[in-house]
Each structure stands twice: as structure tokens, then as C-alpha cells.
Design brief:
By secondary structure, this protein is an alpha+beta fold. The protein has eight helices and 15 strands. It has an eight-stranded mixed β-sheet with strand order 4-3-5-6-7-8-9-10, sandwiched between helices. A five-stranded mixed β-sheet has the order 12-11-13-15-14, sandwiched between helices. Its EC number is 3.1.3.25.
Length: 259
């Protein structure tokens, strides 16, 4: 199964990259302030959905652009065709195709492809995580003197609340802050050791579904489980090295907001 999803992600990445190279003439619209969408997002999601339906006709599908489609099984493929569309539009390389499997109420498998960088991260429950086909080592112990956190700032969240969180991270947790405007890419940085933990302040399930099971397989801890959490929930959580996650306990994370 994993090999098939990797192949779908590769094909989707090629299509996304083709649009990226022509982005100067690509129409761009907004779903909300600074929340952009392009024809590339829709075309890539359509391609992924078509391939998934052909390969797994009984499974459900939940995509950022197309919403949900039920299936006969207890499996749902959760897709973000281009996570980091803002970066995509601006010509940056921090965007990726994200395909995650949600089974029996839990993220179990994920594939992330960042085509500009030429990176493919894959794995999850029962599948040892790999980066471009090479096994990834488990997460290393947390070193407070070089602690780094990826932060997913949400343009829809209250500014005062976000400022207070940033103040806590710098003053109390004493972590170096990274923000790349893509949850998928930020969580990939935890997997590869560039950051110790990722903090979400309002992510959607499609932002994190692929990266989540990969990080758990590498030894990450998260501040909430997925029991009874709908795929439409707004997610505030931390995931990463256990010691780094412990530093964030005062933030009271792990209580999804329901749309």
C-alpha cells in the first residue's frame, strides 16, 4: 500500500511542480485573508482523488478543496494537495503534497512529497519512516540549550492570544522559534531533526494527517489523541520530542474546537 501512495504522491508532485513553474500566470483567489487557493490546488487534489478512488474504491476521502466523500470501509484518505499554498504562490520551496490515512479513528500512515526540494517522507504504523527511501533514525533526546520549535501561526486566531503564546515560548520555554507557513513542512522538520517540536494553533486535519503517524512512529508524543475528534475540528496541539512537549504543558493544549 505505501509504495502505491508514494507513486501517487510523486505523480501529484510532478503536476504541482508544472503549475509552480507557470505560477506567474496562475489565477489566485482567497478563501480568507492570506489563505490562498489556486487552480493548482484543485487540479492536484483531483488527480490524487482519482488515483485513490481507483486503488481503494471502498475507502472514504476528505480533501481540503473538495470536502468529504464517504466509503464502505473504516478508512479515510485525508489530502492536502499543496500544503503551503502561500509559499507556492510566492515562489518558495516550503510546500508539499500531503496524503494521510485515517483508519478506525486514528492517523496510521502518511506520505509527504516536497517536489521543489526533491524530498519524500513516508511511513507510519507498521511502516518504518523513510526519507527518500532511506530509513529515518528515531527522534534524538531533547537538548534544551539548542531547543527549536516550529509554530503554526493561524491568521484566524486572535492576535493577542498568538502573541501571548510566542511570549511564553521565548521567555518561559526558551525555545528558538521557526515558522514556515506550512504545517506539513514544519512537522517534517521535526522528523528530520531541524526542530524538536511543532505547535499548532488552529490547524485542520488535512494539514497534519500525513505527518502525524510518521512522527509517532519516530517516537514523538502529542498532547491529544484522536478519539472522538472529527476531521472538521480546529486543532491546537504540540507534537514532537516528549521532553519538548512537556515544556508546553502550561499552554493547555489538546482541546480541539469544533466547527
Amino acid at each position: 500500500m505505501l509504495e502505491r501512495i508514494v507513486a501517487i504522491a510523486e505523480e501529484a508532485g510532478r503536476l504541482a511542480l508544472d503549475h509552480f513553474e507557470k505560477r506567474g500566470s496562475l489565477p489566485v483567489t482567497s478563501k480568507a485573508h492570506l489563505n490562498l487557493v489556486t487552480e493548482a490546488d484543485r487540479a492536484v487534489e483531483s488527480l490524487i482523488a482519482s488515483r485513490l478512488r481507483a486503488a481503494f474504491p471502498d475507502d472514504g476521502l476528505f480533501g481540503e478543496e473538495s470536502g468529504g466523500q464517504t466509503g464502505g470501509s473504516r478508512r479515510i484518505w485525508v489530502v492536502d494537495p499543496i500544503d503551503g499554498t502561500f509559499n507556492f504562490v510566492r515562489g518558495g520551496d516550503q510546500w508539499a503534497v500531503s496524503i494521510g490515512l485515517f483508519e478506525n479513528g486514528c492517523p496510521v500512515l502518511g506520505v509527504i512529497h516536497a517536489p521543489v526540494r526533491g524530498t519524500m517522507l513516508a511511513g507510519g504504523k507498521g511502516s518504518a519512516p523513510t526519507l527518500n527511501g532511506a530509513l529515518l533514525a528515531p527522534l534524538t533526546p531533547f537538548a534544551p540549550d539548542r531547543g527549536s520549535i516550529g509554530v503554526g501561526l493561524d491568521s484566524g486566531a486572535p492576535v493577542d492570544e498568538q502573541i501571548e503564546v510566542l511570549r511564553f515560548l521565548m521567555r518561559d520555554a526558551r525555545l528558538m522559534i521557526r515558522s514556515c507557513n506550512s504545517a506539513t513542512m514544519a512537522m517534517m522538520e521535526v522528523a528530520t531533526g531541524e526542530a524538536d517540536v511543532y505547535l499548532a494553533m488552529g490547524d485542520s486535519s488535512w494539514d497534519v494527517m500525513a505527518a502525524w503517524p510518521i512522527l509517532i512512529a519516530l517516537g514523538a508524543r502529542a498532547t491529544f489523541g484522536w478519539d472522538n475528534v472529527p476531521l472538521t475540528a480546529g486543532l491546537k496541539f504540540a507534537i514532537g520530542k516528549p521532553e519538548a512537549v512537556d515544556l508546553l504543558a502550561a499552554l493547555g493544549l489538546g482541546k480541539p474546537t469544533m466547527d
